[in-house]
Each structure stands twice: as C-alpha cells, then as structure tokens.
Amino acid sequence: MNTLITDANLNRREVFLALGATAVGLAGLSGLQAAEHEGHGRSPADLCAKACADSMTSCSKHVRHCTQHLADGHKDYARCLEMCVGCLQMCGACVGTCYGPLGVTVAEACAKACDQCAAECEKIASDEAMKVHAKLCRDCAKVCRDFIKARA
Fold it and tell me: Which pTM was predicted?
C-alpha cells in the first residue's frame, strides 16, 4: 500500500515539475519573439537566444520522453529527466537575459547546464533520441560560450 502511494506522489511530482518547466520555457520564448520583432539581426545575443530556444524545445520534448520511459520502468531515465528540466529552465533564463546586463552571468550557467544535460543523456547510448538531444545541448553550450567571449 505504501509503495502505491509513493509511486502516485512521484508521478504527481513529475507532472508538476514538467508543467513548471514548460511555463518557464514559454516565458523565455516570449522574450525571443519580442527581440525578433524589434528587428535584431545575427548578433551574438540573437544567436544565443535562438540556440537556447531550440534547446528549450528539445528539453521540453525530452521531459516527456524520459517520463514515458520512467513510467515503463526504465529507471535510468530519472536523472536525464531531472537534467532536462533544469536545462530547460536555464535556457529559458538565458533567452530572457541575453539582451541585458545579466546575459553573460546566465549564459555561463546555461552552458554548464547544457553540458551536464548532454553528458547525462549520452549515458543512455541505446536511445537515438537522447543522442540527438545531447548534441543539441552541446551546440547550445558552444553558442553560449561564443556569446560570453563576444561580450568580454
């Protein structure tokens, strides 16, 4: 009986975590749309915001992917789920700040989060979708670092 209750709480927690991560992601994307609307070009901040928005989208998809695998009993996806949620949130923060004074500070954290997410996703070598996601995270980390260099 206790196991059933614990499992139900875990599933509810995962759902709330995914919903919160999605809300953060949508808030970050609205900042990117505003920047594009103002006619910004291909500045380092624009490239950073675009890479982070792409990473957020992929992370959001992989939150669901990992949750489905967890529901099927594949416990090795638990850490990936946590990393995708955290990475999604960091990318959202980066999109929201890359045009302002906190851009470099947040981009540093975002690059680290993307690297850690990629490393965790690469551990599931049998899952092609996780490999593709890991590459996208690595690409985002590189663009964030390029942004940091450009601002130095």
Answer: 0.74
